[in-house]
Amino acid sequence: MRFCETEHLDIALDADANTVSVDRSRASADPRADGGCAVATGAFDDLADRPAVRVLVDGSVVEIFTSAGRSVTTRVYPTQVPPWTIQAPARALVWQLGRTVTTEAVPGHR
Q1: Distances (CA, A) of 20 to 15, 30, 35, 43, 77
Q2: What are the Glycosyl hydrolase family 32 C-terminal domain coordinates in residue numbering (predicted)?
Q3: What is the 3-state secondary structure (H, E, C) of the chain?
Q4: Among 45, 62, 44, 64, which residue's Cα sits nearest to residue 54?
Q5: What strands lie across the sheet with 19-23, from one edge to the other?
Q6: pLDDT band at 110, cuts 50/70/90?
Q7: What average pLDDT does range 41-68 have in this prediction?
Q8: What pLDDT was estimated at residue 34?
Q9: What contacts 24+ positions apart, CB below 8 Å, involve 29-36?
Q10: Of 71, 73, 60, 72, which is closest to residue 7 (Cα–Cα)?
Q11: Rounded Cα–Cα distance for residues 8 and 3 (Å)
């Protein structure tokens, strides 16, 4: 997931090691942001009737769910505002969800 030229979040699938790793070390140029890497082991279930991974992005929250029921949830703090770019294999399915909630002023309230 690319936020700008210098900021990106790397999500790597390793079928041989049966792992998914999420590397936040380059996700933000802000020195206060937490870097590091999270790894989910036993990540894939070849018999499962679902994709190897599903990645959900909601603002600064990134959640990865694997076919074996493992999950990794992290926050990222890029200095670049959206829109961001998803880089994925050609077979990947990508959905962009619209707003599901709208706000409106309540009469008599600020």
Answers
A1: 9, 25, 17, 6, 21
A2: 6-79
A3: CECCCCCECEEEEECCCCEEEEECCCCCCCCCCCCCEEEEECCCCCCCCCCCEEEEEECCEEEEEECCCCEEEEECCCCCCCCCECCCCCCCCCCCCCCCCCCCCCCCCC
A4: 64
A5: 10-14, 19-23, 37-41
A6: low
A7: 93
A8: 85
A9: 29/78, 29/79, 30/77, 30/79, 32/77, 33/76, 33/77, 34/75
A10: 60
A11: 5
Per the structure block, which two tokens stand in for 65?
């769910």
Which is more confidently placed, 110 or 80?
80
- Residue indicated by tokens 């690319």: 2
Whole-structure pTM value? 0.81
Query: What phi and psi, each to the nearest 5 degrees, are found at residue 11?
Result: -115, 120
Residues in the chain: 110
Closest CA to 96 of 83, 81, 110: 83
